[in-house]
Write a structure and sequence with these properties.
By secondary structure, the protein is α+β, with helices and mostly antiparallel strands. It has one domain: 2-Layer Sandwich (HIT family, subunit A), CATH 3.30.428.10. Helices cover 32% and strands 17% of the residues. The strands form two sheets. It has a five-stranded antiparallel beta sheet. Strands 1-7 form a two-stranded antiparallel sheet. The longest helix has 21 residues. The protein is globular, with a radius of gyration of 16 Å. The structure holds zinc ion. The site of zinc ion (ZN) has 5 residues, from α2.
Amino acid sequence: MTTEKNRTTGKKPFDFTTYVEQIQTRPCFICEIVKGNPEYRHHVIYEDDAAIAFLNKYPPLYGYVVVCPKEHREMVTSDFSADEYLALQRVVYQIGEAVRKSVPTERLYILSLGSQQGNTHVHWHIAPLPPGVPFEKQQLEALGVRDGILDLTDEEMGAMAAMIKSNLHLETRG
Ligand SMILES: [Zn+2]
C-alpha cells in the first residue's frame, strides 16, 4: 500500500458474488464455528452454553460483532421461548456495551437479518457506527459490503477481539 492505512475506515474490495455462492452451498458457518471446525475459524468474543459471539469476518464497520444461539435456529422470534430470547438479548446487550466501550461509537446498530436462501442460522448484528459519517452514509448504507470491507489483518482482528473481551462483563468460558 502506498498510503498509511486507516485501520478503522480503510477498505478493500469484497467479492460479493463468491460470498453469496459460498453461503448458499457450504454448511451453516455458525454451526461449523460452534463445532470448532478450523476452516471456519472466527475471533470468538464470548461463549456460554446457549450463545456465541464472534467478530464479523467481513466487517464494513470497525468492531462489528455477531451474536448467535449455538443451536441451529432460524426464526428470530418463533424458534425461541420468550425466556430463551431474552437470555440471548442479555448477551446482545452486554456485547453491545463492550463494543461501545472499545471503539468510538456515534450510534450502535443492533439488528437481525439473515435469509432462508443462505445464512439461515439466526444471528444479531452488533455494528458500531463511528463518529463523523455523513447522514446519507449512515444506517443501512453503513452496513453494506458491496463497496468493500475493512482492510484488517488477522492480528488486527485478534487485537480488536481482545479489546472487546476486556470490556465485556459476562462470565466467559475457557
Ligand atoms: Zn447453524
